C-alpha cells in the first residue's frame, strides 16, 4: 500500500489516504516518485474548471525512478530516472502527422491508463491527466515516461515535465521571441517564471513581469525580469510607457482570465504577438471589435503545453540547466509533503509564491 492525495469529488478537499496499485502490464511502467510539482491545472481539475472523472489521484508534473516495467517496454529499465509526460502523443493522428504533437487527439484519452484502488473500500481511482503524480508511486503507460536528463537533480527535474516545458515553449515556439525584442509575461507563478527565464535565454532586451502581488517582484527579477508592473486597470498603459509607447513585441498570458488576456493584447505593439497559456473557464469571455483587429494587426494565439514535443525539447532544457542559463530553483518557493498540497492550492488562489514542490 502507498499513500496518495485523492480527490473524492469535484470541489471536495483532497484526502491523504492509502491506495493499491497493480503491477505494470504490457506497455506499462511503475515509478517511485521523487517529487511532484503543484500546478494550477491540478487546482482547475479539483474545482471543476477542467473535467476529471472522480474519485481521482491528481498530479501531472513529476519525476522519479523506475521500479519495474511490463512486457514490451525497452526505452527505460528498473533504476532509471524518468520525467513524467502527461500528454503522450500517439504519432498517427492528423495533428501528429503535421508535427503538432501537442494537439494530439489521443493524448488525454486515457488509453493505457492504470486505475488504482482505495485501500479502505476498494473503489477505483482515476489517474488524473494520465499520470497520477500525487502519490508515492504510480503505474503509467510507457509513453508517459521520458528518460530523466543527466546532470539535473531528480527532484527539480519534475518541473521540466510541465511548468518549464510550457513556459519555455510559449516563448520559443508559440511567441517565437527573437534577440532584442521586448516581452511581457502576465502571471508570475511557476509557468510565468519559466517564461521569464525563457525570454532572457532568447535574448529579449526588455522583459516586463506583471502580477497582482507586489511581493512577486523579487521572484520575477531573480528569473530575469527587467521591469515589474503590479496588475491594475492601467497595466497596458504602463507597459506601453516602458516601451516607447509602442507596446511589447510579444505578450505571454499565464493566468487564464479574460481581463488578463485583454490586458496582454492591449500591451502588445501593432503587429505584435499575444500568446495565451493560462487555462480559463468557459465563463471568461474576451471581446474584440472588428476595427481594432484590423487596425492593430496583432496575432492572438492559444498555446497548449508550450507547443512542445517533450521528447525533443527536454534535452534542450537540460542543456540550459547544465549550462546555468536555466535555474529550476528560482521556480520553487516551497517544498512540502503530500499533506501540504491543499495549502499550496490556497496559496495559488491567493496569488502567493511560485511553484510548490511535493518531495517524497
Explain what the structure shows.
By secondary structure, the chain is an alpha/beta fold. The protein has two domains: 2-148 and 327-359, Medium-chain alcohol dehydrogenases, catalytic domain (Quinone Oxidoreductase, Chain A, domain 1), CATH 3.90.180.10; 164-304, NAD(P)-binding Rossmann-like Domain (Rossmann fold), CATH 3.40.50. It contains eleven helices and 18 strands. The protein has helices spanning 40-47, 94-97, 154-157, 163-174, 190-202, 217-223, 235-242, 258-267, 290-296, 310-322, 341-349; strands spanning 2-7, 15-20, 28-38, 56-57, 61-69, 81-84, 116-118, 124-127, 137-141, 145-147, 182-186, 206-211, 227-230, 248-253, 268-276, 299-302, 332-336, 355-359. Strands 3, 5, 6, 9, 10, 17 and 18 form a seven-stranded mixed sheet that branches. Strands 13-12-11-14-15-16 form a six-stranded parallel sheet, with helices on both faces. Strand 1 and strand 2 form a beta hairpin. Helix 4 crosses helix 5 (190-202) and helix 7 runs parallel beside helix 8 (258-267). The protein is globular and about 60 Å long.
